[in-house]
Write a structure and sequence with these properties.
about 300 residues; alpha/beta; 8 strands
């Protein structure tokens, strides 16, 4: 059954209307329609707000008392997406972990190239620390795709400002090398049903602007990750961004960060979002739940 599920998902991506490298205004509308077309469960509560002057969307499950906060950064190659487009996956994780999600609506390129998104992420994190009384043990960060790379860059920047680290980080299919130098950009070209290297390059230029794509705060595969919290990195083997995850995990391990890397064979980018129809996605989210329930991630110890 899993092979049939994967083939159906692959076909959906290959024949779908999304063109990551197309006109960014048009593709924002397509991306939003794709990810918000299905209604959320009735008990999911979405509450717009602001954190550190940055728009956020609080995502909770009605009738539950959250045990902590997941600071969430959505995907979309820094150009597409919003807190709302991540709400289905984020609410699923909130339900499983018993935590609330605070999803950050950081500014998007090309209207707002680097460092705008990083500035927003850092402002939101700093304000969340203030809100919790600087108890970072009850906070974990989660990012998907570009949001995962942004989450790591935010942690590196927060460390440089001597802010306390959160308890843990969960990174879904991180987009963490905007130089696009990973070998999987070539070796996974045929396998990836969603993107092409050329399309990703368009969006990378939008985000980097006049900057340097190898800047560690743009491409955290090149960052010094010492002192970051424990990380769980999940990626599919059918991704152009596979090497981003592999090299980010290797860099974390080299820098003495507790890191768990999980590569799921035969699945595409951010496959966890399809847990309802893909067995591998369901299994991956169970492992996320277990990871966030460990003492270091649940606030039991640091």
């Amino acid at each position: 059954m899993s092979r049939e599920q994967r083939d159906a998902l692959d076909t959906m991506f290959r024949t779908g209307p999304l063109d990551i490298g197309g006109d960014h205004l048009e593709q924002r509308e397509v991306f939003t329609r794709m990810l918000t077309s299905r209604p959320l469960p009735e008990d999911v509560v979405l509450t717009p707000g602001s954190l550190g002057g940055v728009p956020v969307l609080e995502i909770t499950i009605d009738g539950t008392v959250p045990s902590g906060t997941l600071l969430w950064f959505h995907g979309g190659f820094h150009v597409l997406g919003s807190a709302r487009t991540s709400a289905a996956l984020a609410s699923n994780v909130a339900r499983r972990t018993g935590r609330r999600v605070v999803s950050v609506d950081y500014r998007l390129a090309p209207e707002h190239p680097h460092t705008a998104a990083l500035d927003d992420a850092l402002a939101a994190y700093r304000a969340l620390l203030d809100e919790t009384g600087a108890d970072s043990a009850v906070v974990a960060v989660v990012g998907e795709s570009a949001g995962a790379g942004l989450a790591v860059a935010m942690l590196v920047a927060a460390r440089a400002q001597h802010l306390p680290m959160p308890s843990a980080g969960v990174l879904f299919s991180p987009y963490a090398d905007l130089t696009l130098s990973g070998t999987s950009m070539a070796t996974k070209r045929a396998a990836d049903p969603s993107f092409t290297p050329e399309a990703i390059a368009v969006r990378a230029r939008d985000y980097v602007g006049t900057g340097d794509p190898s800047d560690p705060l743009v491409s955290p595969v090149f960052a010094d990750l010492r002192g970051l919290p424990p990380l769980l990195i999940q990626v599919g083997s059918n991704e152009l961004l596979l090497d981003d995850a592999l090299r980010l995990a290797a860099r974390a391990a080299t820098d003495d960060v507790l890191v768990r890397l999980e590569v799921t064979p035969g699945v595409p980018h951010v496959f966890q979002a399809f847990a309802a129809v893909l067995e591998e996605g369901e299994a991956a989210l169970r492992r996320v739940t277990d990871f966030l329930a460990t003492p270091f991630a649940s606030g039991g110890s640091r």
